[in-house]
Amino acid sequence: MARQVAHEINNPLTPMKLTIQQLIRTKHLDHDSFDAYFEKSTQTLIEQIDNLSRIAGTFSQFARMPETKFTKVDVAAKLFSVVELFKNNHENIDISYSGVEKDVCVNGDAEQLLQVFNNILKNATQAIKDGTKGKISVELETINNEILIKFTDNGVGIPLPIQQDIFKPNFTTKSTGMGLGLSLSKSFIENMNGTISFSSKIKTGTTFAIRLPKEHESMLLHSEDI
Question: Counting runs of H as helices and runs of E as strands, what totals does the chain give?
């Protein structure tokens, strides 16, 4: 459990470090746009710090998982902000986003969604071999009453013998970049009445797909469970 706590605390630290590094570069290279980027970046840092504080608090008692706090969340805006962080700070990886950038809402937990997006994108960057031109595409689309989010990388892929284990608690493998956070990510998404799945091929890459009910549908499903 202690390893899992450390892993989840490290997840928000990655985009925080990337944001600060980009702030420094922007100040030195592009003074005209620094003020606008500073305001945007500080808001992102505040969100990640809040996320980190919550993780530390909820895991202070190892016996219980973080509680899901349901609110109206603009999942598109959250996703886009995380993608931009990784995009601006991984020069060797082509990270693209397709889909609307805001006003696609779910009834879920904003901080848990940030953890999920951070974890999957971090895993995707780690799955790309050094010296190769990495590509990561993030797509968001709405299908009827459902939101579909896909993360696709051209990394090393997940070996078939361990694919059945990657969502298990405390499972990890450095060779594919998969971390302990996938177990929690699955729990978080399922608590929001969603699903998370993946497909992978060695030396080709991996796609993670998250499906979440749109706000009104999610609220209906959650109320029926009470």
Answer: 6, 7
124, 135 in Cβ contact below 8 A? no
Tokens of 68: 């899901």
E strands of the chain, at which residues?
A: 71-74, 93-98, 105-108, 134-143, 146-153, 195-201, 205-213
The answer to whether residue 153 is domain-embedded is: yes
SS3 assignment, position 187: helix
* Verdict on whether the full-model pTM lies above 0.85: no
Cα first-last separation, the chain: 29
210 close to 195: Cβ distance less than 8 angstroms: yes
Tens of pLDDT, residues 118-153: 999 999 998 998 888 899 999 999 998 999 999 999
Pairing assessment for the beta strands 93-98 and 205-213 based on DSSP bridges: unpaired
Q: How far is it, in rounded angstroms, from Cα 136 to Cα 128?
A: 9
| Overall number of domains in the chain | 1
Containing domain of residue 154, as a range? 68-225
